Amino acid sequence: MTPEPPAWILSGMSGAGRATARAALELAGAEVTDNLGCDLVAGWARLPRRRTAVALVDARQGEAVAGLVPPEGVRVLYLTASDRVLARRQGESSLPHPCAAAGAPLAAIRRERDLLAGLRAAADTVIDTSDLDPAELRRRVTGLVLPSGTEAALRLTVSSFGFKFGIQDEADWVVDVRFLRNPFWVPELRPLTGLDAAVRDHVLGDPRTSDLSGRLAELLTWTLEQYAGHGRRHLHVAVGCTGGRHRSVVVAEELAGRLRGDGVEVEVRHRDVHRPDPR
Known about the structure:
β2, α2 and β3 form a beta-alpha-beta unit. This protein has nine helices and nine strands. By secondary structure, the chain is of the alpha/beta class. The protein folds into two domains: 139 residues, 3-Layer(aba) Sandwich (Rossmann fold), CATH 3.40.50.300; 116 residues, no CATH class. The strands form two sheets. It has a five-stranded parallel sheet with strand order 2-3-1-4-5. The chain is globular and about 60 Å long.
């Protein structure tokens, strides 16, 4: 028997890209319901489906959304962004903020985060759109919600970032590699990145790098099997160092390579690798 197509709740902050995601999913063939009432979610989830169903449920529902518990089997995709980015985007929008009654833009944003805290905690996947253009957001959302072919295997994202620029909000796991030998203190390596062979050799020359990568790969391989058995389809592991240009990049690439060797589908991203040389 062919499994029934999945149901998703799409939620998140105003200005984080819900409208872009909704349009992309509709164009890709999903059955999308906008601004579904919280009292209707359970009944909606029980409806028979011939194609993937997506319901937008967010702060437009007011206080009711704060107590919403997603029905069993319904996945949640949550879009977010930094307060600064949300405030800027809201300023460019002609639509009123659903929490405008809370006061100034930042107060409205804080109130919206409070209302959506439960859905954020229940989310299967969180996407931080602060640095995403609309095309990349559309690609990520459709690839997650409407994977090609039959039921998708669990996909792993391994990313690198710099703690000085903030932890990745969409990460499920965060790995701190700041204890490894730092190429930043080698003058000829400082302007390079972890994508350069010289930096990679330097970081891998620290025996702890190989030990860490091996232990992480072993733990993740086991963990992915457990997640898959519970129907989860995506896991994001973010590897951080100070600036996100050297150690975290090397470890993310090394970890991804080991996991691919074990047959795991891995996407690699480097958030801060192309930030300007701090000199």
